[in-house]
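for the writeup, i need someone to sanity check this before i put it in the appendix. the sequnce is what the collaborator sent (i think, or maybe the updated version? ugh). structure was predicted straight from it, no edits. if anything looks off just tell me and ill rerun, i have time this weekend
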Amino acid sequence: MRLEPILNPNSALIIRDPADRDAVLAALAEAAAARIAQADARAIQEALAQREAQTPTATPEGVAFPHAMIEGLERTVLLVARVEPAVTFGGTDLPAPDLVFCMIGAAEKPWEHVRLLARLARVARTPGALDRLRAADSAEALLEALVEEDRAHG
């Protein structure tokens, strides 16, 4: 599953000085709700927080993959964010993520969600990809870097 078809100019953001993980999730939920007709940002934030409560989505590479599936969603929403400074997503044994890939998918299409997570993992594992994403100094540059990484994977 390619990332580019589900991205748009509002798919990237820089989250500056968040108080904690919940503030990051709130910013992501607001951005997602702006892309989903009749969406409730609070409900999205709660779904993301519930998923994080099950098992934090942070990785040893300083990346987090918060995600949730919502009933009746027509299409998947993908957001990428740089978090300045990084905040803990749970578990003190992992570095605080400064890159976050947030996915909101349709509960009726779980396979799309899994395919998207797999694609993001492949992109993130590419040598130098995370450094190139972290080097982006604006939301526009972050989105452009993600699109370039996606294209490099065919």
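The chain is about 40% helix and 20% strand. Residues 4-152 form a domain with the Mannitol-specific EII; Chain A fold (CATH 3.40.930.10).
thx in advance!!
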